[in-house]
Write a structure and sequence with these properties.
homodimer, about 500 residues, alpha+beta, BirA Bifunctional Protein, domain 2, Rossmann fold, 2 domains, eight-stranded mixed β-sheet, five-stranded mixed β-sheet, 18 helices, 19 strands, Histidine--tRNA ligase (chains A, B), ligase (chains A, B), HisRS/HisZ (chains A, B), cytoplasm (chains A, B)
């Protein structure tokens, strides 16, 4: 190692697009992940933790003939010049893990995984380059019972973390039905026009029925005044796509009838509809009605990526967005069937289906609804009146902890007692313990109820203030009991 | 993006030195981290999660004038050519976080952090390039009460995760005492000979008292027959170092007397001894006797890095190593005071002290002692006798899950029933549910106790086998109760 040169001070900042999480931000997310894992576990899914780093060839999507892998991931070269990268999701690593260990894993293999993933993208407000995902997948079965199970589990999970029934809906669609529609339209399988139609369908959420119709045919003037070229289909050709997207009816039987109209005689289309019917039957048998999980052909997210059923969980309650407008909270989870992912490694197709929950969005939703269990209460603070008697204070704090009470001794400079109370305030401490020389001689401590004290300070007269009902003197032997009494009261 | 070329199949392997963790490997570690976090929280420490990625300048130890940062970390360049790297520990990020947010954080700031860290080192057997650390640090106080608190917390943590008192000891030393020894020896502060002495002391664990004496003076023939040059001190000069390393006596008072002899009139040495005495007093006041935490000047690990008190937790029970030799399990945690880390950013010294637990080693120790709570029981498996009746099986599994029982329906190819039982075996399922057409007509299910069944299969006669006491037929309405009865029995 060469000699270190005198350097300017480093900047105390994380890299652009990364951030720190403090205290309850960490524990609230952890609590939610624990709750999700409990449901996944109950469904028979097993935990898997793969490394944050994978080879670029295992992650896929990369080019061997360029000097540096393309954007989207953080990648670098190992000593032997092979490229490695931070995982960008939890699905690509699962494909690698399953291909590697398939002889030692049960078939089907149900696994869940949770942890950070990294995207080398331009960060923006609320968009970070490291964020959490929480996935569950079933690998090795083509049965739509696996898809139905994932939907049921997603519904149970949302309710378990605190989204009440009625505030969410899991919507199910099927890529095969869309394939049937494309077949019914007579579009050639390989032609670029199929991709154009898929891309157009992706805009359904934004532009609606009439917008899609225009984009599929002659084109459309968008909100900015720009003219967007159309795909160039005739109105007749576009009709099955519109019929597909708008096929959702009040009851499932009618929806399926509409879909049958949209796919015509297409075999793959009929197969897709049969799968949706089966999923509906299985869910009904498990007690999951349409108020929780519904067949909805207007779900277009992921139709380009998945090969069979696709699912999306939406929160249906309204919030105010940053501009003060009311809108639905929207999607917190998506997934579907992807039958080709493991094939990259093994050459053999391995059917798989799964779901990913956007943990940070779900947390935001729960905060929005005021449904996060507060873990923000600070520790009891044992103040330091006499530095030389630190051992006594240490003994007090040990006694509190041994009684299971979160507690700490003040370790800053004890000279200014006001600073100690300011510290307790910053720590959201519910109680402070005070023992000066006089109290020590008499074998007592002052137990100060800081929550009550703050309330009094807001509104008390001088007389009330002097009466100090928020502070009680008790024998040292009663300290734990008195603290417990105050803590029990402040929780109520 | 350029056109993707036809590529050979990717290898289904993680990068060298990385590995996957399955099922109970994940949940057992998680359970231990939860237990550790509970103790840290009780001590008033707050969670912090900083990103996996930091700028290379914030991590430190790097050179601006070489093309690629030196080995030891995984580093790469961002779009703007600045270097970023995966964190190699949790302390360097803490220094950055504290420097950045110090105006919004309480003083002192107690924080804990747990998560993976990455080292770009040559992997070896049992040595991975990603592993977990679990740290607690107190930033912003020079008080040795903070060091004593860390030691007490470490002792409580080890007992809380399942290491009984007597099977571990936390040892405490102080770099300042060693500085006093070096002063007493008359070694110049800046000279390279100090570093030579520090490096020699680091070998005390391996070569012992006589080995250190030889290495400090004229040199030593090592086990391989090679001659190791000595530092070149006289026997008299080496004596204070030996006195320091061997100063531990049966009681602390005698140890301190020995240390006073070793540091002579050195002011810094006297300060270091006073600190150790204070730590001992504070711990005694908290009820932490020498059987849990002891002052031990023979602890040399980290003396080169830390600036004040250093601590190490050792497990004292014996295990058999890979060669079948008995040895003590050894160190699972270390820490100490490092007063210069934040200064890199702010220019102002910020005192800090902390500890890091080697989570994987501690887990290995608990497994070695058979103290890991097994989480390996699989789900109840509802078998599939008739594919067309999947909705019925789905309803059964939903009923089990709603009763809080971990359960799944068999989703593989149901043709061969033997395969379904093999699957249940691989999943360590305690119970299988069986319902063929005949049972369905009669409204009953077969509930098969797989644990008892396996026992019988091992030792049963043909008659016993036929009697099949491990399988019971019950009305469908009693399924949950019967499963509960079996699960309660198999836990006992």
């Amino acid at each position: 190692m060469a000699k270190v040169k005198k350097q300017p001070r480093p900047k105390a900042l994380p890299p652009k697009g990364f951030r720190d999480y403090f205290g309850s931000e960490v524990t609230e997310r952890k609590h939610m992940l624990d709750q999700i894992a409990a449901v996944y576990h109950r469904y028979g899914f097993e935990a898997l933790e793969s490394p944050a780093v994978e080879t670029v060839e295992a992650l896929g999507k990369f080019l061997p003939d360029v000097d540096r892998p393309n954007e989207g991931v953080f990648a670098w070269q190992d000593e032997d010049d092979s490229w490695m990268a931070l995982r960008y999701d939890l699905t690509a690593p699962l494909a690698r893990v399953y291909a590697q260990h398939r002889n030692d894993l049960p078939t089907p293999y149900r696994r869940y995984a949770m942890g950070p993933v990294w995207r080398n993208e331009k960060p923006g407000p609320g968009r970070y380059r490291q964020f959490y995902q929480c996935d569950a997948d079933t690998v090795g079965t083509a049965s739509v019972a696996a898809d139905a199970e994932i939907c049921a589990m997603l519904s149970d999970t949302l309710e378990h973390v605190g989204i009440p029934r009625g505030d969410y809906v899991v919507r199910v669609n099927n890529r095969k039905v869309l394939n049937g529609v494309l077949e019914a339209m007579g579009l050639p399988e390989e032609a670029g026009v199929r991709d154009d139609v898929l891309r157009t369908i992706d805009k359904f959420d934004k532009v609606g029925e009439e917008g899609v119709r225009q984009l599929l045919t002659k084109g459309r003037l968008d909100a900015s005044g720009a003219y967007i070229d159309g795909v160039g289909l005739s109105e007749d050709q576009a009709e099955p796509v519109i019929a597909f997207l708008t096929s959702k009816a009040a009851d499932a039987a009618k929806t399926f009838e509409n879909l049958r109209g949209a796919v015509g005689t297409s075999r793959i289309g009929a197969e897709g509809i049969a799968e949706l019917e089966q999923i509906g039957d299985l869910l009904a048998a498990g007690g999951y009605g349409a108020e929780r999980i519904e067949i909805d052909p207007s779900v277009v997210r992921g139709l380009g990526y998945y090969t069979g059923p696709v699912f999306e969980a939406e929160l249906t309650f309204e919030i105010f967005d940053e501009k003060g407008r009311k809108r639905q909270f929207g999607s917190v989870s998506g997934g579907g069937r992807y039958d080709d992912l493991v094939k990259r490694f093994t050459g053999q197709p391995v059917p798989a289906t799964g779901v990913s929950i956007g943990v940070d969005r779900l947390l935001a939703a729960l905060r929005e609804k005021g449904r996060i269990r507060s873990t923000a209460t600070g520790p009891v603070v044992v103040t330091v009146m006499d530095k030389a008697r630190m051992a006594d204070y240490q003994a007090m704090v040990a006694e509190l902890r041994n009684a299971g009470i979160r507690a700490e001794v003040y370790l800053g400079n004890p000279k200014n007692f006001g600073n100690q109370l300011k510290y307790a305030d910053m720590r959201r401490s519910p109680v402070a313990i005070i023992q000066g020389g006089d109290e020590a001689e008499r074998g007592v401590v002052q137990v100060k109820d800081l929550v009550l004290g703050a309330k009094i300070a807001e509104s008390a007269t001088l007389e009330e203030w002097k009466a100090q009902p928020a502070q009680t003197e008790v024998p040292l032997g009663d300290m734990v009991a008195e603290v417990r009494r105050i803590l029990a009261g402040s929780e109520g």
